[in-house]
Amino acid sequence: MAETLTNRVAASGLITLKLEEYWPTAGFATFDLKDYLFMGLILKEKDFRAAVKEHDFSQYAGKTLLVFCSADAIIPNWAYMLVAAAAAPFAADIYQGTEEAYLRQHFRGVIQQLNVADFADKRVVIKGCGDRAVPASAYLDVTKHLQPHVKSLMFGEPCSTVPVFKKPRKK
Fold it and tell me: Is 125 helix (H, G, I), strand (E, B) or coil?
């Protein structure tokens, strides 16, 4: 008589949350204000306005435009505003900062939108490996967001997890 194989992982009732699936859909493009500094130190309004007017912002169509200055210079706030105004008709999103900072903010927002009722009193595995590196801050944020609601929280793959949290049994 043949034995019936049982997929114990599937039968365990674990919910696997793959943060990688929430990766931003738009690609990234950068706009470094360093390239517009006079003598590498200051931003001249008249020159910068002319440069922004001449710049082809259509190249950022459908992308997240990351606006920052990689030089150690004081950038006036109006400079970011001028870039945003020029890029807005084209870019999918405009962010002041680096890709790393953008991803931290993006994942924090995604995690805050997770419906905790979907995870209430469930055993949840936060998948840790994937094709894209999810920021470490996202793992911290998802733990903070889900911990009050889940039965247990684990990291890794359903077949090999690292226990993170287990709700104490009521006496």
Answer: strand
Q: Kindly give the interhelix angle for 136-146 and 99-113, rounded to the nearest 10 degrees.
A: 20
Distance CA 113, CA 22 (A): 11
Residue 138 exposed, middle or buried by CB count within 10 Å (0-12, 13-18, 19+): buried
Distances (CA, A) of 92 to 14, 62, 153: 36, 5, 34
Instruction: Domain ranges for the chain, please list them.
Output: 8-24+101-166, 28-91
Q: What is the pLDDT of residues 63-80, one digit of tens each?
A: 999 999 999 999 999 999
Instruction: Name the β-bridge partners of 157.
Output: 160
Confidence of residue 4 (pLDDT cuts 50, 70, 90): low
Q: pTM of the predicted model, to two decimals?
A: 0.83
